[in-house]
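[[Per-residue structure]]
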Amino acid sequence: MLQINENAIHKCKRPIKVLQFGEGCFLRAFVDHMIDIANEKGAFDGNIVMVKPRETGNVDLFKKQDSLYTVILRGVENGEVIDTHRTVTAVEKTLHCKADYEEYIALAELDTLEFIVSNTTEAGIVLDVTDKMDGLPKTYPGKLTQFLYKRWEHFSGAIDKGLIILPVELIEDNGKKLLQYVLKLADVWQLPEGFKNWVKDSCVFCNTLVDRIVTGYPENDDEALWQQLGFKDDLLDVGEPFALWVIESERDISDRLPFDKIGLPVVFCNDLMPYRECKVRVLNGAHTSSVLIGYLAGFDIVRDCVNDEIVGEFVRKTVMEEIVPLVPLNDAEVKAFAASVFERFRNPFIDHSLLAISLNSVSKWKARVLPTFKDHYEKYGTVPKKLTFSFAALLVFYRSTDRREDGLYAKRKDGTEYVVHDGDEVLDFISQQSGKTTAEYVRSVADNIDFWGESLTRYNGFCDAVTDWVREIENDPKMALRKVLE
């Protein structure tokens, strides 16, 4: 049992409302943390049973601590440094799907159960038609189909015993895909038509979008944090204060999960695409358009970039002048989100490596920056100056003929060697083109339809502008930044 000031932390007995597939750091510092707050404020009154969905590993540490753990949120919010902690008491118990199978599957018969939450990673929501109904299915969709079938059987298809399914895996249309796979497995397993109708009519599969950086267990300063907290916790979970949970559903479920009514950052809607666009374009777009030039200019982590006078101004102006005006969401909401992004980038507790973010930058530029670039060109008839500059920075960052088995080796201006990591087809092509003249190199990469889905040479003035910026950046990255801001 955890101890605070020698007084044991006690959990309240509440109805079990949530079955959670996944015991990982993100769910514990995001969904479970919110449920714990909602319980305290009298808005939910429900506990969670966590299930470890993988067949390997154990949950001994959770059982040892009675599924109690502490979430520490550290960062900058509204200009103030935040450093708070909360011991989450909403988890009733933690089970292993295989070792505790009978206890886990019996939860299907629980009258109070209302929600199923999951985070089985992006690879978890997959369809495997060889999965079996007997015993424990291999995949998460398989486990969910089996669990729902057991519930349908037990309650004889009662309409009011359907569940609300909330996957938070980071794939688009996560709820729709999960429903599709459940119905497909029901066909493969030749389950009754009545079951499939119950799944479609009585259960609600929500698409979700989640946002919070969770760094997890603080390996390097756990003992110092134990001293600050006054107790030992082997399940410490560290994240940032910012959070956003957008829930899209065909039926209104906000009265069942009234988190927004108590000030939690949850948005219910019937279309989350504008919110996804906002996140991808503003947060991810800011990263992708700035980290490579930041690294070339001599920086190693995000915080130092945005705190630098020149790189920081480039990040802010790129976002506010070229990205925010083209996001298809309420202007005030987008600007508020952008402001939170700048604060998150300055988080003094997270050393976010630029090289880590640089992974697969070609596909990231296509997904995160190119849509805004195209919208700008369509609206104004010109290429956006700073987003075009970011493309040039990508080409400089990648430019090298030193292709090795583990990546593409390059050097920045100060002589620091770094390794570019991307798909083999990307690295092979870039290494073959890098030795050409700058103009030829730029045109060949811009013309690669496999990279961008189209030839970027079609945008008037783009290749000439990129070529000029590549030369400027290769000569002096910081001076190039000053010129693009003029």
Observations:
- The chain has two domains: 3-269, 273-484.
- The chain is about 45% helix and 15% strand.
- The longest helix spans residues 273-296.
- The two ends are 60 Å apart (CA to CA).
